[in-house]
Each structure stands twice: as C-alpha cells, then as structure tokens.
Design goal:
By secondary structure, the chain is of the alpha/beta class. 39% of the residues lie in helices and 24% in strands. The protein has twelve helices and 13 strands. Strand 2, helix 1 and strand 3 form a beta-alpha-beta unit. Helix 11 packs across helix 12.
C-alpha cells in the first residue's frame, strides 16, 4: 500500500578513490528528532570509505530539509516516502540499491564511536561471519550502559506428556550492566543474534534468504533474521571493540509522537508476534504471554508516565497514571 518512494541521488567525490566495501543504510527506528545527531556522528567517526543510503519515511519538514541538504553536501542516496514505514519496510527499500560486499543497517537514533565500522568489517573478514554486531549501549550518557553484547536466539523442542512443542529461547548478554563493570569480560565471540540498532551483514546473504520479512512490523525482526541466516548456514559474531549507543528519549514532539504511537501500537505488535509464532510454528508459551502482557509498555514509559510527572510537577499519582494508561490504550486501538 506504499506510494512510490522518491529517490534523491547526488554524486560527489568520496574521501578517497577506493571503492567502498560497505553501504550504510540508515532508517527510522521510532522517532525523527535525533536524526541529525546520529547522521553527523556517522560522518564524524567513520574513517573507511563507505556508501550511504538514507531511508526517510515521512519525517517532518525540518528533518526532510536537513536530509536533502546533507545529501547534496555528501552525495548519499536519499529515499523518501510520504507514508510511515515499519523498520523492515524501510530496510527493504534500500537493499536493492546496495552494490557493495557488505551492508550495515543502523537506526536513526544511534551514535557511533571512532573506528566502529573498521572493527566490524575486520571481524567479518577474519571470522567469515554473515552478521556482526558491535557492543550496543543505551542511554543519553553515551557508551556507558550495555544494551546488547551479543546473545542467544534458538528454537528448541520440548516434550511434555507425549507432546512435542517448539519453543524459542532468547537471551541478551550483559544487558543493562555498566560497561566499566564488565569490560574485562567483553570479547569477540560467536553468538546467535544481533539487533538492528546496528548490524553488519554480508550482502550475498539476501540471495539465500530473500528480503526482510515485512510481516514483522514492530518486533522480533532481529530474531527472525538471525534465525533465518543461521538456518542457511551463516554465523553471527559480536565485536565489542566496536561501540555504538542508541539513545531513547521521552516523546513529546507531535512529529515524533505520531510515528512512535504507530510504531509501538498494540495492533502492530500483536500482528508481529502472531506472524513470528506462526512462521516458526512455535507454542504460545510464557515467552509470548510475557510480551502480550507488556503491550504498550514503550508508549507508557516514553509518553504517558512522563506526561503524568509533568502534570503533577514531579509528584507520584498512581490513579492518574492508571487512568491515562487505560485512556491511551483505548485511543491507540481506535486510531
């Protein structure tokens, strides 16, 4: 149902005449207001040659103008749609335009560090990995708290009362631990999944797997892709010498709020979970029940609860919080 995207292409000389090995694909995660900081960090801290494709799904005018200007200055390819995009829809718009050996997917709310891309490429070259992720941190205090340092994602069989069930196992390594506390335990290792906050992929993977699954609108995209790649014989590595941070925020800007509420809507999340469960023939166990119980969690944490604190001048008001959460859930469903 998407309209035809508009593609802006400007050709400029790169920093060197070396043909890039990698195309960086930037796409919206959940908001637009951090796009400038994120993209500027890529150009500031990336030393090796690269191509870049930026997928812009209906950003507000001030971001659209910035991206068009930046595209003219640096020569990256800008793909613009006038509809909001799910993350996999956005990435799939870029993949057919990738001609390099590697593609690096990164969200538009991520800040990178010096040497980040070189270290990911070196890991892929030395291990022949199909997917490599960096040490991904979280928070406005950049590069201090671990969000993901690789993890586990696999499907296993469990037999109970003569019935065999297919279940999914997922685990983040060192989640929410201070980097300083676990620094000596962080080392390059083979793992089972990465996340699309920042993920390096060999481009020829898509010849085996096809494009990313657009039935996954808002969740389980990373698990699905890593399971698919592993199933096709590829390996996944984490390279913690490469460090990036994704920066969530309170969502009050109207231009952010509209996309955020759709991106994390109950409808998109339920649809994604059901699609994932059906696709992999999984039992609806506590893994799924936990996620159904948490529906709306991101909306409530990033908008409703901060709104309550604002209305009550920082005071706790459980009744108002519950009332607004219930009201927001009904409104989100209707919209």
């Amino acid at each position: 149902g998407r309209g035809k995207p508009i593609i802006y292409q400007h050709f400029l000389e790169t920093k060197t005449m070396t043909t890039p090995k990698v195309t960086i694909v930037v796409s919206p995660r959940e908001r637009f207001s951090y796009s400038r900081e994120s993209l500027d960090s890529i150009y500031q801290y990336t030393e090796m040659p690269f191509s870049l494709i930026y997928v812009d799904g209906k950003s507000p005018q001030y971001i659209q103008r910035y991206l068009e200007q930046k595209s003219e200055e640096t020569g990256f390819q800008l793909i613009r749609t006038e509809e909001y995009l799910s993350p996999n829809q956005a990435r799939n718009l870029a993949i057919p335009h990738v001609t390099t050996e590697y593609v690096l997917f990164i969200d538009n709310d991520v800040i990178v560090t010096p040497g980040w891309l070189d270290k990911l490429i070196a890991c892929a070259e030395e291990t022949q990995a199909a997917i490599v992720c960096p040490l991904t941190c979280i928070g406005k205090k950049l590069h201090q708290k671990v969000h993901l340092a690789g993890g586990e994602a696999r499907i296993f069989l469990e037999t109970e009362d003569g019935e065999t069930r297919r279940k999914v196992h997922e685990k983040h390594y060192f989640v929410n631990r201070p980097v300083a506390e676990v620094q000596d335990q962080l080392q390059r290792q083979q793992c089972e999944f990465a996340e699309f906050h920042c993920m390096l992929v060999r481009s020829d993977v898509f010849a085996k797997t096809g494009l990313l699954d657009e039935g996954l609108l808002s969740t389980r995209e990373h698990s699905d892709f890593c399971l698919t790649v592993t199933q096709s014989g590829g390996t996944v590595y984490c390279e913690p010498d490469s460090v990036v941070t994704y920066v969530p925020d309170i969502i009050f800007r109207p231009s952010d709020l509209a996309y955020f509420m759709l991106r994390w809507s109950d409808e998109w999340e339920v649809s994604s979970l059901e699609h994932f469960r059906t696709k992999w023939n999984l039992t609806q166990d506590k893994y799924f029940k936990k996620r159904y119980k948490r529906l709306g969690y991101r909306r409530h944490e990033a908008f409703v609860k901060p709104l309550v604190r604002k209305l009550t001048f920082g005071q706790s008001n459980p009744w108002l919080e519950k009332t607004l959460i219930d009201l927001e859930r009904k409104l989100n469903h209707r919209i």
